[in-house]
Amino acid sequence: MGGKNMHILIIGAAGMVGRKLTERLVADGRLGDAELSVLTLVDVIDPPVPDGFAGEVRTVAADVSSPGEAGSLIASRPDVVFHLAAIVSGEAEADFDKGYRINLDGTRFLFDAIRLEGVKAPYKPRVVFSSSIAVFGAPFPEKIGDEFFLTPLTSYGTQKAMGELLLADYSRRGFFDGIGIRLPTICIRPGKPNKAASGFFSNILREPLVGQEAVLPVGEDVRHWHASPRSAVGFLLRAATMDLEPLGWRRNLSMPGLSATVGEQIEALRKVAGDKAVKLIRHEPDPFIIKMVGGWARDFDTGRAESLGFQAEKSFEEIIRAHMEDELGREV
Questions:
Q1: What percent of the chain shows pLDDT beyond 90?
Q2: Where does the chain hold its CATH 3.40.50.720 domain(s)?
Q3: Residue 292, pLDDT score
Q4: Which CATH superfamily is domain 197-224+258-301+311-327 in?
Q5: Chain centroid to CA 201
Q6: For residue 131, which of 89, 78, 192, 173 has the smallest C-alpha distance?
Q7: Which residues are catalytic?
Q8: CATH code, residues 5-183+229-254
Q9: What is the pLDDT of residue 35?
Q10: Which CB contacts under 8 angstroms, 24+ apart, belong to 23-26?
């Protein structure tokens, strides 16, 4: 990638991680050794135009699960494609057809558009696919390694596992140079709650930090795997610039994170923001969410990813402080 101008395509650019990634790319003005010349930002709604970018910004409202849309996006031959677009876990479970259309068909159409563009003339971009730890299903070992088999227990996890297999096969066939990164649950998510079943992990910290009540639908003994939005962007940038040769054809890997119980989250909140914030958390058990969470991963062995340069927070206090610095303008 060194010494050239670069065109980056972000699909899912209006989402939280997409916006954060865009902000970081604009701030850096480059990816690896290459200066950014064009940013194409795509989502089902027009993504916001970033301030302060010297190059060209193209914003497109498009649904890559609609036939023909992906081909028109790939026709400009971006050098790096970040595929972040997805229907989140709770919504994919509630709306079976929509989940498969967006999460599976959209991914297949995008990957195939790249393959077909390469038929016209040589073309082999870097593709970074945001997968999820939801590809794993219980029962789990104490720590889940990359060798643990994929037996998802949700439609969302199944759709992401299918995307991983497609990415590995299209990479093996030489259609693109792909890497799939299994993101931990991102916490603390800024903004308003979304339809992700995991949203409460963020809600019980984000709302109390600004003096608002939050609902906790599960017990404090629930353990899960987390990383901050700041870490998620770091994962994506590393995946876009690293040498993929060491991965061989095992192109999907679990990202580093922090294993913590809800109780440990709450204690970290207490240390940073005091008892007053903790008292704003209201316990309201939700059987649907309790059932879903019971099949989620709790802890990982991410030595492979760490050996390749991926890094995340080591404590929940770090995660809370990152949110306060990045979203609330407060240093702690």
A1: 88
A2: 5-183+229-254
A3: 81
A4: UDP-galactose 4-epimerase, domain 1 (3.90.25.10)
A5: 15
A6: 89
A7: 156
A8: 3.40.50.720
A9: 96
A10: 23/50, 24/233, 24/237, 26/50, 26/51, 26/52, 26/53
